Amino acid sequence: MLGRTTGEWHRRQREAAAAHPASFDHTQGPVDLRRSIWRHMANRFTPGMRARVAAMLVLLLAVGSTLGASPPRRIVTLAPSLTETVFALGGGPRVVGVGDYAAFPPQVARLPHLGGLYNTNIERILALRPDLVLIPSPVPRLQTVCRDAGIRTEIVRMDGVSDLEAAIGRIGKLLGRRAAAREVIGRLNRQLESVSVATRTLPHPRVLLVIDRPMTGPLRDVTVVGHGSFLDVLLRAAGGRNVFANIHRRYFTASLEAILRRRPGMILELDADAPHPGRLRDEAQRAWSKLFGPGHTPPVRVVTDPIFVVPGPRAGIAAEKLAAILHPGLGGSNGVAP
């Protein structure tokens, strides 16, 4: 049997030598022979064929690594939206640390708070031994340190309502909770659609959305909401019209003259960190009255519920609350300062 196999190998060598005399080396063994034949075949590939083969190899390697990966057991989330999403998908027991601004669900109060994106406590993160760190945007130093420590980091953007479905689905995949992700996405879409239907035939007030300004001194440096932001989409779903919807910037500083020209029918100020909401409401009313003049000031509402500034699984509830602010006849809790 061995002699027959050896003879067969010599016969195939002679045939290969006759077919490819320029590239064949009679001193080669079976492995080297295969390499020569592969080089000959590769030389006949067009550049397009080579690119397709390379892409297929990369894809196969990626699929293989994904199939072999197990869901993370110790997770750090560095944005409120990411924290809420992981908990909504049933991954709360795996969260070992959160960012400083995480406030929901209530369980996060007991977890280590690890700073924000620009003042992250990297040493504490390493001490928690996570196997996954979720961030909303690149943090180069943190990513480098985690990579060197063998800790996986994933950037998951949740900047607006349009990002939510893809982001929730991706986090569900990372956690091995795809079914839960589909359920959360379905519920969110049903809530947004329900609010849109409820407000479709109601008057749509022109709204100025303010997210930041100095709380002392004259009215100035007013940061407002433009087109495409989470709040802009939320406002439309709730039956309102953003007075700066034609400005394709998510947030920007508007001049007082521009605000007057837009003639808002309502002013919503969002301040989730207000220590004294009632006092803030009175101050806001006085400040805007000085700009618009007596008898011409639109209604001013100060919104203190942080749900309005966190794109996440509760966006449908936020839309319901915002609709109750714009259309009081709909009822419901709206998060407005009393």
Q: Key features?
A:
alpha/beta; Rossmann fold; six-stranded mixed β-sheet; four-stranded parallel β-sheet; 12 helices; disordered N terminus; disordered C terminus
Describe the structure.
There is one protein chain. Helices cover 47% and strands 12% of the residues. It is an alpha/beta fold. Helix 7 runs antiparallel to helix 8 and helix 8 packs parallel to helix 12. The longest helix is centred in the N-terminal third of the chain and has 22 residues. It is globular, with a radius of gyration of 30 Å. It starts with a helix and ends in a 12-residue tail after the last helix.
**How do the helices and strands follow one another from N- to C-terminus?**
HHHEHEHEHEHHEEHEEHEHEH
Strand content is 5-15%
CATH superfamily of the largest domain: Nitrogenase molybdenum iron protein domain
Q: What's the mean pLDDT score?
A: 83
| Structural class by helix and strand composition | alpha/beta
Q: Give the CA-CA distance, first to last residue.
A: 94 Å
Secondary-structure topology with pairs:
Layout: H1 2-19, H2 30-43, H3 47-68, E1 75-77, H4 80-88, E2 95-98, H5 122-127, E3 132-135, H6 140-148, E4 152-155, H7 161-175, H8 178-199, E5 206-212, E6 222-225, H9 230-237, E7 241-242, E8 251-254, H10 256-262, E9 266-270, H11 277-292, E10 300-303, H12 315-326
Parallel strand pairs: 1-2, 1-3, 3-4, 5-7, 5-9, 9-10
Antiparallel strand pairs: 5-6, 6-8
Helix pairs in contact: 7-8, 8-12
Summarize, please.
With 338 residues, the protein is an alpha/beta fold.
